[in-house]
Structure prediction request, 361 residues.
Amino acid sequence: MNVWISLIASLIVIGGLVVGAAGVAGLAQYSHTPELLVLLGVVVPLLAFIAFIVGVILQVVKWGRRPVPFPIATVAGQGKSLPWIKANYFDAPYTKAGVVGRMALEVLTFRSLFRNTKMELHDGPKLAYGWQMWLWVFALAFHYAFLTVFIRHFRFFTEDGSLVFQAVMFLENLDGFLQLGLPHVLISGFVLLGAATMLLLRRLTNAQVRYVSLIQDYFPLLLIISIALSGILMRHVIKVDIVAVKVLIMSMLNFDFAGIGEKALAIGWMFYLHIFLVSVLLAYFPMSKLMHMGGIFLSPTRNLLCNSREFRHVNPWNYPVKVHTYEHYEDEFRERMIEAGLPVEKTLEETQEAAAPEEKE
Prediction:
């Protein structure tokens, strides 16, 4: 039962956010109270954006200050050693170019997730390993759909006719190449919703994953699903004035708050629900597991050379330690070792011959 508490708590929080934001926006429009709409559509997003930037910077600085004196890169192949042993260039990179290639494959294709396997115990007993492709497929679809949706929204933050605006519109035309409905169905939004839903179902149906899932695993997935669903509803069902949305956003970016209340009243309530959920995601991002977006580039298990067989790495912060070497140990106990029949590197005669010149000097 305790396994489901995290899911139930996440559903309650998400439900409260959705009902609260939708209720406030609907009440504000019904009573013609632009102050509440400005709070949801201008003040909260600005504060969330500030929290996002500050939080990400603090987290990156915190990670950057942690010492990593040794190369601890995880490997999945043969490291470089003897010349006649073939090393794996990407799975155990020993050059900077290899590290860059490994990072590129990891970030762009999720290569380590592609090699994910599942272990099962069958009758016999027999241990079987199987390739788990679907997690890699859904993760890849989720991230690339999220990236596409993120880039598409830049049409609201750029001037019409600019080079960036034209590039964004080109991407949007590609995204809606099926030309279904009016406005056209954009594939990335539905892929994002479907992939996030499948990742959530994986956590619910897989007993091992469900057992280790916490509220910080369910909450961002449910929040992203809510954002994608509200965006799809806003585009195809409960439509809003897109021109009025862009006017409001451009006014906010230019810090032109003259008549901001009237501009806010011209937009439907679904927009304020959508932008409020996005603001919650922005503010929550730096303190969540979603920070792996930046953490992957700072992970010492990925961005370090795997050359521990080629070079000896000594901790630069080691303080001087007085040691008792084996040579000194044997000099001290040589006679007793010989009496006990233990092998020694120097006999008593060799020791005496080596000490004789020193005594003459």
About this structure: Residues 34-64 form the longest helix (31 residues).
